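The material for today's practical consists of a large collection of protein records. Backbone structure tokens are a discrete shorthand for how the chain folds in space. An example says more than a description, so a record of this kind follows:
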Amino acid sequence: VWVAHELVHQYQPSGGGVQLVGIPTFTGHVIVGDTLRARPWDGQTGGVLALDVDGLLELAAPIDASACGFRGGPKVAEPSQCQWFLQQNDWYYPMGSWRGAPKGEGIAAWIAGKEAGRGPQANGGGGGNDHNAGGGGGGHLTSGGQGGEEVPPSVFGCHGPYPGKGGRPLDAAPGLRLFMGGGGGAGHTEYLSASNEGGRGGGILMLWADSLRTHGFRLSANGESLPVANGESGGGGGAGGTIWLDVATALDTIHAWVRGGDGGTVDNQTGRCAGPGGGGAGGRILTQVPVVAELAGGQNGINLNPGPCDDPASQAAPGEAGVLAPLPDLPQGTQPLADGLSWLLEPADAVGCAGDTATFALAAAGPGVTYQWQRWDGTAGTWVPLAETPPFAGVDGPQLVVAPLADTLDGLQVRAVASSPCFDPI
């Protein structure tokens, strides 16, 4: 990879938090014939789908980055040591602690020993604390919903009044920043079969096209909704992701969805209210053409069976709605890293007799330099690329060898052209 211009932002690649995303570019009439889906974020790469069409982009299938963003808190079962008169109310615990379930992933780096518990991980939802509290929904530019509380049938039972908090809202300024949706926090549980993990956030979908015809197929970057949990607690829904839509002309109605995922509902034990999951926040759509936008936050989960809590949600909350905004200018570096290619070494004239060897060497400074040696064709009045055939060797490198010399080569004129993907040839 060669960089031609100064970067707009500073990055820290040593921590594994930087990925380079290629943007496939096509010309003409491009048809999406099967569902085009982003590769899910795996902690280092993925989560982004980008496509640039110099012409018409036509959909015969959806383009989908749903549930491809930040990961939800994993489901972890630890035997509880709860006592009715002690509350587990800290904001963080180490991974594997019985006191708190894992947080959902967000833009903040993980801190060792603080991977679990009810505090949000930036836009990642907090995990439910002991006992059986629900996970918080992931956030984006708006907040995810908090998880629900566990209410036992007896005052001497294990309570769960400290559910995971919803993921925090992010600030897109200063400058333009595009985010994946935050992952939902996991619900607290003692049994893997009795709860669920947090939902994944939506990824980032970026499209450029002169014109777009969708035929009603959606562009989506929704957060993940969760299934019904069997007895104890629900995870938080993932937040919606981002859709960047740089299209000059919309030829029909564009449906763009960045809905937050629903928190986990609980098939609770009769007489006991478990902690459902909070809903994920809606995502963000940036566009210069009108769209039918789905920005809703995800719904919180509920308890399916009657219990002692005031309402079936047991204080679980939905995620907030997302944001629809005009397409801003995409910031790009304009300051060149170098003025262009330059010669460090130029070839000298060579004199030899028939049967001798002549060597011409040169070197150019610049990113990704390649060479092509040429000879002067006096009849045609032009420079002609040399072929890698005797007596010429190294015609695509910095050193040209001519061997053996012959009388027919008297007056031979050669030169080399240095090229780079970033600058004009010299």
Observations:
- DSSP finds no helices and 19 strands in the chain.
